[in-house]
Amino acid sequence: MSRMITVHLRYEIDADKIAEFREYGRRWIRLVDRLGGTHHGYFLPSEGDSDEAFALFTFPSLADYERYRLASTDDPECVEAYRYAVETKCIRRYERRFLAPVFE
Q: Domain of life, per the record (predicted)?
């Protein structure tokens, strides 16, 4: 039995480039959904730390996530979204965690 997996990303972003990071997030929400996942959104700074953002997305299984990762390396829109982040330097670093979600 495969278990659903949620990916939690914690980003350290450039606080002066929140608009660029927002655009990066908008691109990836659609791409994750198109490549088999369910994106739960990006969460930008509001109060508190101004350089920390988060994202959550779920795949039916770890194997599905791995297929997404592989597909995203060759997908032109994914490559372009990654290039955008590199060029704008809106992301300083990120951490990825895998979680087992509990839904009703």
A: Bacteria
The position carrying tokens 């198109």 is 34
Q: What is the pLDDT of residues 28-40, one digit of tens each?
A: 999 999 999 999 9
Residue 79 lies inside a defined structural domain of this protein: yes
Spatial distance between the Cα atoms of 60 and 50, rounded to a whole number of angstroms: 33
DSSP 29: H
> Taking each helix axis from N to C terminus, what angle separates 18-34 and 76-88, rounded to the nearest 10 degrees?
160
Better pLDDT: 97 or 104: 97
Q: Is residue 104 part of a domain?
A: no
Residue 52 domain boundaries: 6-99
